[in-house]
Design a protein that fits this description.
Number of strands: 6
Number of helices: 3
Helix content: 55-70%
Largest sheet: 3 strands, antiparallel
Strand order of the largest sheet: 1-4-5
Mean pLDDT: 85
Order of helices and strands: HHHEEEEEE
Distance between the termini: 127 Å
Structural class: alpha+beta
Oligomer: single chain
Strand content: 15-25%
Number of domains: 3
């Protein structure tokens, strides 16, 4: 019987030791679980932020591509404007004093000029209408000023060089003379 008594005592004494050793293990496991949950939450937050950043980058890139497509050929069209100006100067020549041969030459200029203007119109390039309008510094450059009687201050008196808009963007500002 003594052996049984000893065994019972040992069994009873062993149980509290096991319970005591399980509690620290559970507490340690709970701390580890909480730590892992925090790390998981931080990683999920980081993934969400990276996803949002990627979406923003994609949106900005698409907007830039759309802008490039919208204004494609802007440089070429800008380089055509001085040619248009030269054609307009040539066409302004008085053809009453010209010989028959020069008159035919000038009519060829007019046809080329008309074709160029049609191309610009097809590409949505519009001349800025500014003569006798109020001066607008966003679309015009005041090259000269002149005091003119009967005309209000800041009115465009003369267009020295035409300005052009490409869709909704300024391609070239108009150079104008403004009243004082």
């Amino acid at each position: 019987m003594e052996e049984n008594d000893v065994k019972e005592t040992e069994t009873v004494s062993n149980e509290p030791k096991e319970v005591n050793s399980v509690k620290p293990k559970k507490a340690k496991a709970n701390k580890e679980i909480e730590k892992l949950k925090e790390e998981n939450k931080a990683l999920n937050d980081r993934v969400l932020r990276i996803n949002a950043e990627m979406q923003n980058m994609r949106r900005r890139m698409e907007e830039e591509i759309n802008r490039i497509h919208k204004y494609e050929g802007e440089d070429v069209l800008k380089n055509l404007l001085p040619i248009i100006d030269n054609f307009e100067r040539a066409i302004k020549l008085d053809d009453t004093d010209l010989t028959d041969e020069l008159s035919k030459f000038l009519s060829g200029f007019k046809m080329i000029y008309t074709n160029l203007v049609n191309i610009l119109n097809a590409k949505e390039i519009k001349e800025i209408d500014c003569l006798n309008k109020e001066f607008d510094s966003s679309k015009m450059e005041a090259v000269l000023t002149e005091k003119v009687e009967g005309i209000e201050k800041n009115q465009v008196v003369e267009v020295l060089q035409k300005g052009y808009m490409y869709k909704d963007k300024l391609l070239r500002p108009a150079m104008v003379k403004v009243s004082e």
